[in-house]
């Protein structure tokens, strides 16, 4: 029904407008008590799906990636679609509008999306207010810096977000890999990244300790990926999310393929899997990896898990395939048992 009726209708309209319309619609359905249908239709409940990763118990390994529910407005309702966890954000200390519109583009021929949103969000404190109402959804908090904050002062922004969210999320994700905030990716260099993560780990130990993960770009070289392995070991963070969006446009067919921003969806599938496999093999599986990028089928999900991912996340595949994809992945995982 989603791919034959709902998606063709939604895809006739501006993608950012559709995103907000979808949020309002799901909220309304929830108030009417109709999200129970989503639970019965899409959730797969089975002990065999449970995973314990970086000290947390996930009811299944399929999560929603950051960027979809930036402001923690819909995490409760989205969990009804069968996600084992939901990652909110990227959040910044102060609210910011993001980049000028139009900034979100569908590449239908490629089953992809280009976005240059620019960390648009209502600020971390507004999200905390909503997270206080959480009813047993496992939440990841993806944090970043405000656009106007220079890289030399970036740690303060991450610290503010970390401290504000600490009591309301189950794990943290440090986002230094978005291509849509000027110079942000420079923080992926070994020295500034080690300093940033070490500083957050010091705060983390004082508070008792929650898993901190690093989200990396798919465009890193092998040498840079080896640096990432070394940084994880040095700072003793819990793991890595591989990968964020790419700036590559190789092999695209769609007319709007040259739009600037980060590319997600099917064209990212092979590269993100390569990065997962590289990190897993070269580190000798020293840390957990959450695999994300181009998962549009159960086979894609299994490929990520076989490459070394402990958990996976959906974003563009969820938009193109609908919530049925979550169910299909979980059912296929059970078949492998």
Automatic annotation (TrEMBL):
It catalyses: (S)-dihydroorotate + a quinone = orotate + a quinol. Its cofactor is FMN. Binds 1 FMN per subunit. It comes from the Bacteria. PROSITE patterns: DHODEHASE_2 (PS00912). Residues 49-334 form the Dihydroorotate dehydrogenase catalytic domain. SUPFAM superfamilies: FMN-linked oxidoreductases. Belongs to the dihydroorotate dehydrogenase family. Type 2 subfamily. Catalyzes the conversion of dihydroorotate to orotate with quinone as electron acceptor. Monomer. This is Dihydroorotate dehydrogenase (quinone). It comes from Leeuwenhoekiella blandensis (strain CECT 7118 / CCUG 51940 / KCTC 22103 / MED217) (Flavobacterium sp. (strain MED217)). The gene is pyrD.
């Amino acid at each position: 029904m989603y791919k034959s009726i709902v998606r063709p209708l939604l895809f006739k309209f501006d993608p950012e407008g559709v995103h907000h319309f979808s949020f309002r619609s799901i909220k309304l359905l929830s108030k009417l008590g109709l999200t129970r249908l989503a639970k019965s239709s899409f959730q797969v409940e089975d002990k065999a799906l449970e995973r314990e990763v970086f000290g947390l118990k996930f009811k299944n390994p399929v999560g929603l990636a950051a960027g979809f529910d930036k402001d923690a407005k819909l995490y409760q309702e989205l969990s009804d679609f069968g996600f084992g966890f939901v990652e909110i954000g990227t959040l910044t200390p102060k609210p910011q509008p993001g980049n000028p519109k139009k900034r979100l583009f569908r590449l239908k021929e490629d089953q992809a999306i280009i976005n240059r949103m620019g960390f648009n969000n209502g600020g971390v404190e507004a999200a905390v207010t909503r997270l206080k109402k959480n009813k047993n959804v496992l939440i990841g908090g993806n944090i970043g810096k405000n656009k106007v904050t220079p890289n030399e002062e970036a740690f303060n922004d991450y610290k503010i977000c970390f401290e504000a969210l600490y009591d309301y999320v189950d794990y943290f994700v440090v986002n230094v890999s978005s291509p849509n905030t000027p110079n942000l990716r420079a923080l992926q260099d070994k020295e500034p990244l080690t300093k940033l993560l070490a500083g957050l780990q010091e705060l983390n130990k004082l508070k008792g300790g929650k898993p901190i993960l690093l989200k990396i770009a798919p465009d890193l070289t092998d040498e840079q990926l080896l640096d990432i392995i070394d940084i994880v070991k040095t700072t003793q963070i819990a793991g890595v999310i591989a990968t964020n969006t790419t700036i590559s446009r190789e092999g695209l067919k769609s007319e709007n393929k040259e739009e600037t921003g980060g590319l997600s969806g099917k064209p990212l599938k092979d590269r993100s899997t390569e990065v997962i496999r590289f990190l897993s093999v070269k580190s000798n599986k020293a840390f957990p990896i959450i695999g994300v990028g181009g998962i549009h089928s159960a086979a894609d999900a299994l490929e990520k898990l076989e490459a070394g991912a402990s958990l996976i996340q959906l974003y563009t595949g969820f938009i193109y395939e609908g919530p049925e994809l979550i169910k299909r992945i979980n059912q296929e995982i059970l078949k492998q048992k």
